[in-house]
Structure formats: C-alpha cells, structure tokens
C-alpha cells in the first residue's frame, strides 16, 4: 500500500493542521509521519507558499537537540535517519536543477570570454598560444634539419 500524502496547513498563529486527519498536529507528529513513510507537504494557509523544507529543518534541529539532552535508547542519528533521507530526497531535485543551470551558465560564459579574447588578439595582431606553439614546432623542425646537415661529414671536392 502506498504511503498517504499529508497536506499540512500552517496558520498565522503558528498552528499546524493536517488535512488528511482533520486534526491539529505538532512538529513531533509530522516527524512521526515522515518516519512512517508518509509524504508530507506543509503550506502556508494564507499565501499557499510551500514551507515543507522550513518545517523539516525545524524538526531536524529539534531531533538533534533532543538527542543530546534526553536519555532515549536510540541515538539521535538512528532515530532521525529516515527524516534525513526524506529531506535529502525532497531537496535533491531543486538542487540538481540549480546546479545544472549554473554549470550551463558557466560554460556559456567561458565560451563568450574565449571568443572575446580571441577577437581582441586578432584585432591587435597579438599571436595566440596556438600561434606560438605552431611557431615553436616549426623552429624545432628547422633545428633538427640543421643538425642533420651540419653533422654529415663534408666530402672533399675533387677536381
């Protein structure tokens, strides 16, 4: 059976209302829903703004704090493991989208800069690295030919 989706509305008075169960719910209750595998979404009632990541961050901070101060049998990392996985899964999509967009923008910018530099070098008749490498290769080839010519023994001229 698939996990139920819980839409939780946050009111201006900071109360949280689970529309699935038609009851008010605490941060601890939301934490339990996540541990049980339910999909949750927290929205601000008045604006419809998605507050899921904010609420999950609050829950994780509370779990971490509670893990240090209470005498629970399981350490905080074990109890919060499912919660961390859920948050990571929930936030990985937007992060990947931002990352790929930034990478594309960086690549486009590099191409634009390379093109601008190449045009400036051409305009001022300044040789590029490619030009200098080609020239160095030609000089090396000429040096090798010159070495061969100077190393061959000279033959006496016969009259």
Largest sheet: 4 strands, mixed
Given the C-alpha coordinates, what overall shape results?
rod-shaped
* Sheet with the most strands: spatial strand order: 3-2-1-4
- Succession of helices and strands: EEEHEHHH
Instruction: Provide the β-strand percentage band.
Output: 5-15%
Would you mind describing this structure in some detail?
The chain is of the alpha+beta class and 159 residues long. It has two domains: 5-100, no CATH class; 104-151, no CATH class. Helices cover 62% and strands 11% of the residues. It contains four helices and four strands. A four-stranded mixed β-sheet has the order 3-2-1-4. The chain starts with a strand and ends in an 8-residue tail after the last helix.
Strand and helix map with partners:
Elements: E1 5-10, E2 16-18, E3 23-25, H1 27-35, E4 39-44, H2 52-69, H3 76-123, H4 129-151
Parallel strand pairs: 1-4
Antiparallel strand pairs: 1-2, 2-3
Care to give the gist of this entry?
With 159 residues, the chain is an alpha+beta fold.
Provide keyphrases for this structure.
159 residues, alpha+beta, 2 domains, four-stranded mixed sheet, 4 helices, 4 strands, rod-shaped
């Amino acid at each position: 059976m698939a996990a139920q989706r819980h839409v939780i509305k946050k009111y201006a008075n900071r109360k949280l209302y689970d529309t699935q169960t038609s009851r008010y719910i605490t941060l601890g209750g939301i934490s339990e829903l996540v541990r049980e595998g339910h999909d949750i979404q927290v929205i601000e009632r008045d604006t419809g703004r998605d507050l899921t990541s904010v609420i999950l961050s609050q829950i994780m901070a509370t779990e971490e704090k509670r893990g240090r101060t209470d005498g629970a049998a399981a350490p905080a990392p074990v109890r919060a493991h499912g919660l961390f996985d859920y948050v990571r899964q929930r936030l990985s999509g937007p992060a990947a989208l931002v990352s790929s967009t930034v990478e594309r923008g960086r690549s486009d910018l590099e191409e634009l800069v390379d093109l601008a530099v190449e045009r400036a070098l051409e305009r001022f008749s300044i040789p590029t690295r490619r030009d200098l490498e080609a020239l160095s290769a030609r000089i090396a080839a000429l040096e090798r030919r010159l070495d061969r010519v100077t190393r061959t023994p000279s033959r006496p001229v016969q009259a």
